[in-house]
Amino acid sequence: MTGNQKTGLDRLVLHVAASAGMPNLFNPYADTDPAIDVPDAASIRCRNLRRYLHAFAGQDGIDLWLGEAPSRFGARRTGVPFTGEGRLVELSSHLAISPFEIATTADAPAAPPSGTSRQIWGALPERLPLFWNAVMHHPHRAATPLRNRTPSRSEIARSRNTLALLVEAIRPRRILAIGRVAEGASAGFGVPVTYVRHPAQGGAAQFRAGVLAFQRTTS
Q1: How does pLDDT run across 93-149, given as a tens digit for each residue?
Q2: 69: exposed, middle or buried (C-beta count within 10 Å: 0-12, 13-18, 19+)?
């Protein structure tokens, strides 16, 4: 890992944590949910994200898989995109890094993996891509903070500088945009973008076919 790249990744984590929150956006890297989180949950999620990003530092030819936003059972709880608590041990083993930390209390209700997460993990190539989201905060409805919603155009626009910092630090060779939200967010960075159908709402088969086609091509 070069000093400049490490500095860039650390700056990215600080930027995500410091990004201004909104009433209907939960920032996993700054906010805590007293119902399920340990007191220093936000710091734990920052450390998890930093450890995750550092695992890719120094690598060439990284593929970036871009989603929409954290889910209520994924990065909202762990800090790692597309990764619920049940996948943390597997992910750290794949990346050959020290284990991730748990940010929720021992008596917090178990978090089942989302259908999207299951499909993504079921389609992974041998060399892991880097996971990220167009919006790194969890969008939810006002009266139901644990209900996912699609991020708004303004939320996506405000998050472009975060994605720009990631692209600058990692320099991915190409982006797999999972869904139209991710496709729109990933345009304009000078990196080849391939759209695949989002696996939710009946799109699983098309998603898998798109990922297979993506893996057979090179940039």
Answers
A1: 999 999 999 999 998 888 777 778 889 999 999 999 999 999 999 877 676 666 767
A2: buried
User: 72-88 burial string, b = 16+ CB within 10 Å, else e?
Assistant: bbbbbbbbbbbbbbebb
Are 32 and 85 in contact by the 8 Å Cβ rule? The answer is no
Taking the CA atoms of 126, 216, 181 and 61 in sequence, report the sign of the dihedral they define.
positive
Section 179-208 average pLDDT? 94
Token pair of 99, please? 């284990």
CA–CA separation, 210 vs 192, rounded Å?
15
Q: What is the pLDDT of residue 206?
A: 96
CA separation for the pair 162, 16 (Å, rounded): 7
CA-CA-CA-CA dihedral for 88, 51, 159, 169, to nearest 10: -140
- Is 40 strand, coil or helix? coil
Q: SS3 for 158?
A: helix
